[in-house]
Amino acid sequence: MLGQILRNWSPSLATWGAGVGAGALLFLSVTPLVRREVLSKVPVLKGYFQDDTPASDKPF
Fold first, then answer.
1. d(Cα 42, Cα 49) in Å, to the nearest integer?
2. What is the rounded CA–CA span in Å between residue 57 and residue 60?
3. pLDDT per residue of the chain (60 residues) written in tens, 0 to 9
4. What angle do CA 29, 33, 34 make, to 5 degrees?
5. Domain boundaries defined on the chain
6. What's the Cα-to-Cα distance from 34 to each of 27, 31, 53, 55, 59, rounded to whole Å?
7. Which helix (H) or strand (E) holds 19?
8. Alpha carbons 21 and 16: distance in angstroms, whole number
9. Measured between alpha carbons, how far is 53 from 39 in angstroms, rounded to an integer?
10. What is the CA radius of gyration of the chain?
11. Are 49 and 40 in contact (CB under 8 A)?
């Protein structure tokens, strides 16, 4: 009984989970910690999220 219910709901839950995870990464992509620790380590996104700003141009 429970196995059948979980089997019916798992595609929907996986789709919603992937959407929520992608939205959270999109929302948090402006945060330096997420950009440095998560997004810069993804091979496809590595070049886009690398920070090439010289240290003299950074205020903090």
1. 10
2. 9
3. 889 999 999 999 999 999 999 999 999 988 989 988 988 888 888 888 888 889 898 887
4. 35
5. 15-48
6. 10, 6, 17, 20, 19
7. helix 2-28
8. 8
9. 17
10. 18
11. yes
